[in-house]
Amino acid sequence: MRVLRTKGLPTPHLFSVFNALILGRLLYAIPFWWGLASSSDKDRLEAVLRKAKKANLCDPTIDFNDRVARVEDRLLSRIVENPNHVLHEYLPPRRASCRSLRSSGTLRDFVLPQKTTLYSKLFPYRLLYAKSY
């Protein structure tokens, strides 16, 4: 990254390279292990981003937790909406609706198991619990 900066790459392009290379690697498969990560693990990831902001390698407005939430939401919506998705079979069963009213939301239609410590940390259940209100 520093080589690109010394070669004269403009700052917006440098931010794009950082998003593609560094953030892409940090966010890869993060929905599956983020709930199981300790606070020290999360702090180390935030430290990488703080150092990059300090070195002006990334946009200073980036928030890692917001990025993680967006990645998780996007993946969950893709899994829920696509019955052919490889992870769709791991979702809990849907409620049987006897009414023909408009659906209250696709994420609220699942029958969730009782919330336990483990379920509250695992990817699909963690987000479904949060979105079930």
State the gist of this model.
This protein is mainly α.
How would you describe this protein?
- The protein has six helices and no strands.
- By secondary structure, the protein is mostly helical.
- It has one domain (2-131).
- The radius of gyration is 19 Å and the shape is elongated.
- It starts with a helix and ends with a helix.
Quick tags:
single chain, 133 residues, mainly alpha
Low-confidence stretches: none
The structure class reads mainly alpha
From the N-terminal CA to the C-terminal CA, the straight-line distance is: 43 Å
Order of helices and strands: HHHHHH
The biggest sheet amounts to:
none
Topology:
Elements lengths: L1 H5 L4 H17 L2 H4 L5 H16 L9 H18 L41 H9 L2
